[in-house]
Amino acid sequence: MQITLRRKFDFEAAQHLPSFPEGHKCRRLHGHSFALEVCVTGSVDPKSGLLYDHAKIASVVRPILEKLDHTSLNDTPGLENPTLEIICQWFWKQLSPKLPGLSEITLHETPRASCTLRAD
Q: Most buried residue among 16, 33, 73, 97 by CB atoms closer than 10 A?
C-alpha cells in the first residue's frame, strides 16, 4: 500500500516576467503570496508507523524558501523568467535529490492559479 504525505509551505516574493509582451500586467514588477505543497509517496514503515517524519520534509524545504522569501525571484539563478511553470520545475530540481519519494509539488501563485509537477 502506497501512502502520500502532503506538507504545505508559504512564502512571499516579487517577480516580473520579461518574456511576456509589452503592456502585459505580469511583465511589470509584482508580488505574490505563494503556497508550495510538497508530496512524498511510499510505504509505511511497520516499526515506526510512518512514511516520513514531517520535520524531515520541513528541514529540506525551509532553507530553500528562506533564500526566496521577500526577494525578487528574477535575481535567483534559474529563475530569470519566473513563470509558474519554471518556478515549479526549479523547486523540483532543488528538492528531488534531498527528498527520496518526492512524488508531486504544487505551487499556488494565487488562490485560483497553480502549477503541479508529478514524478514520471
A: 73
16, 37, 104, 109: the active-site residue: 109
Compute the distance between CA of residue 96 and CA of residue 103 in angstroms, rounded to an integer.
Answer: 9
List Cβ neighbours of 14 (8 Å cut-off, separation of 6 or more). Answer: 29, 30, 31, 71, 72, 73
Q: Is 104 a catalytic residue?
A: no
Catalytically annotated residue among 54, 66, 70, 85: 70
Give the pLDDT of residue 44.
Answer: 95
Q: What is the DSSP letter of 24?
A: -
Average pLDDT, 10 consecutive residues per value, the chain (120 residues): 94 94 89 97 94 94 97 97 96 97 97 94
**85 classed as catalytic:** no
Closest CA to 92 of 49, 21, 36, 17: 36
Under CATH, what is the fold of the domain 3-118? Tetrahydropterin Synthase; Chain A (3.30.479)
